[in-house]
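Worked example

This section walks through a single chain of length 70. The input is the sequence exactly as stored; nothing has been trimmed or padded.
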Amino acid sequence: MPKSITCEVKRQMGWRVMTIDEAVLTREQQGRCIECHEPVRAHKTGTTGQAAHFEHLKSNPRCSLSGRAR
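Given that input, the structure is written out below as tokens.
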């Protein structure tokens, strides 16, 4: 399953693409998916080796970057 490593965050001048490294560094609380524009949140690198990535807050079956429902 593809993992998203970029998202869009709202800034004064509009939406800006941000990498997962930037989001973790600046502690972004929420952004939106670059494909479907649904809300996502950043996950840092896991202790079990999982790579840092953005995850949808709610599963979206129409988005290739969304995981399965929780």
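What to look for: The helical segments are 20-26.
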